[in-house]
Amino acid sequence: MSPVIRLSGLLLLACLLEAQPKDPYIGSQACRACHVAQTQSFFRNAHTKAERGCESCHGPGRAHVSAGGKKDLIVAFSALSSRKALDNCLACHGKDWSRNNIRHSAHTQADVVCSNCHSVHQAATPKHLLAKPQKDLCYSCHPNVQSQFSMPFKHRVNEGTVQCADCHNPHGAPAPTWRMGQRPRLQQHAQANEQSCVQCHADKRGPFLFEHAALRVDGCGSCHAPHGSANPRLLNRPVVFTLCLECHNGAPGFGREGQGIPTQSASHNMADPRYQNCTTCHVKIHGSNADARFLR
Ligand code: HEC
Ligand code: HEC
Ligand code: HEC
Ligand code: HEC
Ligand code: HEC
Ligand code: HEC
Ligand code: HEC
Ligand code: HEC
Ligand code: HEC
Ligand code: HEC
C-alpha cells in the first residue's frame, strides 16, 4: 500500500470518528485526576454498583472535564435547590418501598432532603451513608427530643438499645389507622398497618377477645409517653387512676351507646386508696381473652 493511500485512509477514519457525536459521559476514571478525595473513597460506597459511577448523580462529565472543571458544566449539589437534589436521588430511589411517602413527608415539606441526612462522600456511618450517627443526626435538628430521652424512664436510645428509626420512618409514613386523625408524626408501621410498638412489644398486639378500645383507636400514646417520662412504665400520669379518669369520667357523647365511656361502678370507693391503683385489679389493661373488664 502506498503511503498516500495509507494517509488518506487514516484521514477518512479520523473524519468518521469526528462526525460521530461524542458520548457526553466520560467515565469515573476521568474524575480521578482532579477530585482525588471523592474518587479514592468511592470503592467503599454502595454507589460503586451504580452503572455510571460518579456521573450517575453528577450527570455527564465530558464537557466539565474538557473545560478543565467548570462548575456550571456539571451537576453540582452545592448549586441545586433542595427539591432538585431530592429529584436527583429519587431518579433511582423513587421506586423503593420505604420511601413511598417521601414527597408528602413532614421532612420534605420542611425542605429537609436526602443530602441533609445522608453524606455520599463523607459518611459517618458506612451503612446507610448517614452524615452523622443516627441519634446525633436527629438530635441536631430536634434538641427537645434529646431531653425527653434523658428522663428517668425512657427508651434507651442514647444507650443504643432502641433507635429513632425503629419507631419513625424519616422518609415519611402512610397515615396511621390509630391516633384518631392526629398528625402521623412519621411513625413507622409494623406488620403493614400497626403501631411500631408491637414489633417489640408483641404481647400487647393481641388480637384480644376483649380489646381495650384505647389501644386500638387512640394508640399506645394515649397512656404512654413513647420517648421518656418522669413516671414508671413511661406513663403519661404519675398516678394510675388520674390516667384512667381522663377517659372514664362520665363525660357524655362517646362509646358504644353514645353515652360516654363506662365509668367505674358504685362498688369502686374512690376514697379508698386501694381503689386508686386501678391496675391491681384490672391487670390485663392492654386487653384480655378471658374477661371483658380486663380483670384477668
Ligand atoms: C481537570 C480537572 C477536573 C476534572 C478531570 C474533573 N473536575 Fe470536577 N471540578 C474541577 C474544578 C476545578 C472544580 C471547581 C469549579 C468551581 O468551583 O468553579 C470542579 C467542580 C466539580 C463539582 C462541583 C462541586 C461543587 O462545588 O458542588 C463536581 C460535582 C465535579 N467537579 C464533579 C466532577 C466529576 C463527576 C468529574 C468526572 C466526570 C470531574 N468533576 C472531573 C476540576 C475537574
Ligand atoms: C449517589 C450520588 C453521588 C455519586 C455517585 C457521586 N457523588 Fe459527588 N456528590 C454528591 C452529593 C449529594 C454531593 C454534595 C455533598 C454531599 O452531600 O456529600 C456531592 C459532592 C461532590 C463534590 C463537591 C465536593 C464535596 O465533597 O462536597 C465533588 C467534587 C464530587 N461530588 C465529585 C464526585 C466524584 C468524583 C464522584 C465519583 C467518584 C462522585 N462525586 C460520585 C452525590 C454523588
Ligand atoms: C443511578 C442511580 C442512583 C442514584 C441517582 C442515587 N443512588 Fe443511592 N443507591 C443506588 C444503588 C444501586 C445503591 C445500592 C443498592 C444496594 O446495595 O442494594 C444505592 C444505595 C444507597 C444508599 C444505601 C447505602 C446502604 O448502605 O444501605 C443510600 C443511603 C443512598 N443510596 C442514598 C442516595 C442519595 C442521598 C442519592 C442522591 C444524592 C442517591 N442515593 C442517588 C443508586 C442510586
Ligand atoms: C431526616 C433524615 C433523612 C432524610 C431526609 C432521608 N433519609 Fe434516607 N435514611 C435516614 C436514616 C436515619 C436511615 C437509616 C434507617 C435505618 O436505620 O433503618 C436512612 C436509610 C436510607 C436508605 C437505606 C435503607 C432503606 O430504607 O432502603 C436509603 C437507600 C436512603 N435512606 C435513601 C434516601 C434518599 C434517596 C433520600 C431522599 C429522597 C433520603 N434517604 C432522605 C435518614 C434520612
Ligand atoms: C419507642 C418509639 C419511639 C422512638 C424510639 C422515638 N420516637 Fe419519636 N415519637 C414516637 C411517637 C409514638 C410519637 C408521637 C407522639 C405523639 O404525638 O403523641 C413521636 C413523636 C416525635 C416527634 C414529634 C413530636 C415532638 O415531640 O416534637 C419528633 C420530632 C420525634 N418523635 C423525634 C424522635 C427522634 C429524634 C428520636 C430518636 C432520638 C425518636 N423520636 C425516637 C415514638 C418514638
Ligand atoms: C436538617 C434538620 C433535620 C434532621 C437532620 C431531622 N429532622 Fe425531623 N424534622 C425537621 C423539620 C424542619 C421538621 C418539620 C417541623 C417540625 O415538625 O418540627 C421535622 C419533623 C419531624 C417529625 C415530626 C413530623 C410531624 O408530623 O410533626 C419527626 C417525627 C421527625 N422529624 C423525626 C426525625 C428523625 C427520627 C430524624 C433522624 C433520622 C430527623 N427527624 C432528622 C428537621 C430535621
Ligand atoms: C425496637 C424495639 C422497641 C420498640 C419499637 C418499642 N419498644 Fe418499648 N421497650 C423496648 C425495650 C428494649 C424496653 C426496655 C427498656 C429498658 O429497660 O431499656 C422497652 C420498654 C417499654 C416500656 C416500659 C416497660 C417497663 O417495664 O418499664 C413501655 C411502657 C414501652 N416500652 C412502650 C412502648 C411504646 C408505647 C412503643 C411505641 C411507641 C414502644 N415501646 C416501642 C423496646 C421497644
Ligand atoms: C389505657 C391505657 C394504656 C394504653 C392505651 C396502653 N398501655 Fe401499656 N400500660 C398501661 C399501664 C397502666 C401500665 C402499667 C401496668 C401496671 O402498673 O401493672 C402499662 C404497662 C406497659 C408496659 C410494661 C409492663 C408490661 O406489661 O409489659 C409495656 C411494655 C406497655 N405498657 C406497652 C404498651 C403498648 C405497646 C401499648 C400500645 C399497643 C400500650 N402499652 C397501650 C396502660 C396503657
Ligand atoms: C384514651 C381513653 C381511655 C383511657 C386513658 C382508659 N380507657 Fe378504659 N376504655 C376506654 C374505652 C373507649 C373503652 C371501651 C368503651 C366501649 O366499648 O364502649 C374502655 C373500656 C374499659 C373497660 C371495660 C368496660 C366495659 O364495661 O366493657 C375497663 C374495665 C377499663 N376501660 C378500664 C380502664 C382503666 C383501669 C384505665 C386506666 C389504666 C383505663 N381504662 C384508661 C377508654 C380509655
Ligand atoms: C379492688 C379491685 C378494683 C380496683 C382497684 C378497680 N376496679 Fe374497676 N372493677 C372491678 C370489678 C370487680 C369490676 C366488675 C364488677 C363491677 O362493676 O363492680 C370493675 C368494673 C370496672 C368498670 C366497668 C364498669 C361497667 O359498668 O362495666 C370500669 C370502667 C372500671 N372498673 C374502671 C376502674 C378504674 C378507672 C379504676 C381505678 C380508678 C378501677 N376500676 C379500680 C374491680 C376493681
Features:
296 residues; mainly alpha; two-stranded antiparallel ribbon; 13 helices; 4 strands; elongated; binds heme C
Strands of the widest sheet, in order across it, are 1-4
Regions with pLDDT < 50 over 5+ consecutive residues? 9-17
**Radius of gyration, in angstroms, nearest whole number:** 30 Å
Alpha plus pi helix count: 13
Write a brief caption for the model.
With 296 residues, the protein is an all-alpha fold. Helix content is 28%, strand content 3%.
Topology:
Blueprint: H1 3-19, H2 36-40, H3 55-58, H4 62-66, H5 82-93, H6 106-109, H7 114-117, H8 134-141, H9 143-148, E1 153-154, H10 164-167, E2 189-190, E3 194-195, H11 213-218, E4 228-229, H12 240-244, H13 273-276
Antiparallel strand pairs: 1-4, 2-3
Would you kindly provide a written description of the structure presented here, covering whatever features stand out?
The protein is an all-alpha fold and 296 residues long. The protein has a domain at 24-79. 28% of the residues lie in helices and 3% in strands. It has helices spanning 3-19, 36-40, 55-58, 62-66, 82-93, 106-109, 114-117, 134-141, 143-148, 164-167, 213-218, 240-244, 273-276; strands at residues 153-154, 189-190, 194-195, 228-229. It is elongated. The protein starts with a helix and ends in a 20-residue tail after the last helix. It binds heme C (HEC) (10 copies). Residues 195, 197-198, 201, 204, 212, 214-215, 220, 222-224, 233, 235, 240, 279, 285-286 line the site of one heme C.
